[in-house]
Amino acid sequence: MQKPVSVEQWSDIESQGWQSLIVGNGGSIAVHPQFNYASLLTEAIRISPNGINIRRLFDALDTTDFEYVLAKLRSAGEVLKGLDLTVPEVGQYQAEVKEALVRAVHSVHPNYADVEDQLRLVGAFLRRFRKAAVLNYDVLVYWAMLLVNDQIRLSIKDGFTPSKVDQALRFWDDWPNLLNSYNNVAKPTLVVYPHGALMLESERLGGTAKIVSDGSISASDSRSKLLTTITANWEDKDVVPLFVSEGDSNQKSAAINRNHYLSVVNRHVLRTFGPNVVIYGWSIGKQDAHIASQVFRARNSPSVQNVAVSVRTIGLSSEQISEHCLTIDELLHRFNSSISVRYFDADSAGAWCHD
Questions:
Q1: What span, in angstroms and rounded, lies between the C-alpha atoms of 231 and 128?
Q2: How many CA atoms lie within 13 A of 27 on its CB side?
Q3: What angle do CA 249, 253, 259 make, to 5 degrees?
Q4: C-alpha–C-alpha distance, residues 10 and 249, integer Å
Q5: Strand-strand pairing, 208-210 and 196-202
Q6: DSSP secondary structure of 130-172
Q7: Residues paired with residue 20 on neighbouring β-strands, in sequence order
Q8: Were 310 and a residue from 92, 197, 236, 346 both cysteine, which residue would form a disulfide, CB within 3.0 to 4.6 Å?
Q9: What's the DSSP call for residue 303?
Q10: Residue 5 φ/ψ, nearest 5 degrees
């Protein structure tokens, strides 16, 4: 019989000098159970009146990646236009995929008002760290960031700043400077999206811009209307969203390699997450091996030395909890055998969205 693993409370370990945070899908589900669904593509196909066509298209391209499919359709349309050819089915498919994606996002994503209280706690938790990687495509952390920054401007940054060319919000490649003190913020938090996010758009030449709400309305209204603003941009402005929500590790890596922002985050920023990392709501599954290999590889400088992993304990026996923790141990030690791992209760006070 295996020895039970000690699962601590967040308050027992919160002062141990954790520099970086990685948040997985469990973080979104903890904020709102509406995120507990199997697949965005499956949901899009289920609720779309054109679900059969969409499934056929994704199968033909052998992908589950919306960004990839929409980019292919946009490119096809541009080629046809350049050749003065008309194939209406291309535009039709593009409209159907976008409409299905909009329907699916509004189906699975909670409204701002439903999660505002939890977001305040999420924002306070984020401020404990210098860097945070959000593996989910939703806008929960972005909402939390806006709430924190309403109180102290630029306490949390994601590196998207106005372009000198057209004022569009684009990622600043000199990202280490984002960690420097600014005005009265001594230690700002840098948030990155290794898999993209709903509010990010993939530009034609490989760039990435961020969609924001109308600046002429109040901050509260801006947050409330953000999802509508995002999906309206998809439909009305020929925007291709940048997020990788599904697929195996190789498929996700291919999507990352197609985009400059995702490549910088995965190949450079994640490699600096050591030495002390907290994981919340991330199972480190094989579908995310590309993320784990960047963060935990032994040759990083600084390399990761200590990891604290959140564990759900409700409804599980001590044997089930221990088995899960031992699996995490094995996964992490494949990348770096010297990592010290400890565990904390995901629902304990002060952890993520729990007061």
A1: 32
A2: 28
A3: 150
A4: 30
A5: antiparallel
A6: SEEEE-S-SSHHHHHHHHHHHHSTTSEE-SEEE-TTT--EEE-
A7: 131, 277
A8: 346
A9: P
A10: -90, 140
d(CA 50, CA 97): 9
What pTM was estimated for this model as a whole? 0.91
pLDDT tens digits, the chain, 355 residues: what are they?
456 789 999 999 999 999 999 999 999 999 999 998 778 889 889 989 989 999 999 899 988 878 788 888 888 988 988 988 888 888 888 888 888 888 888 888 999 999 999 999 999 999 999 999 999 999 999 999 999 999 999 999 999 999 888 878 999 999 999 999 887 898 999 999 999 999 999 887 778 999 987 665 567 788 889 999 998 888 877 678 898 877 889 888 988 998 999 999 999 999 999 999 999 999 998 889 999 999 999 899 889 999 999 999 999 999 999 999 999 999 999 999 999 999 999 999 999 999 9
- Number of Cβ within a 10 Å radius of residue 130: 16
201 pairs with which residues across the strands? 209, 241
Give CA–CA dist 20/166, Å, rounded.
33
The strand pairing partners of 278, in sequence order, are: 21, 308
User: Which H or E run contains 251?
Assistant: helix 249-257
Q: What is the spatial distance between Cα 99 and Cα 49, in angstroms, rounded to a whole number?
A: 10
What the block records as the tokens of 110 is 């909670």
Tokens 């600084």 map to which residue? 302
Side-chain half-sphere CA neighbours of 241 within 13 A:
29
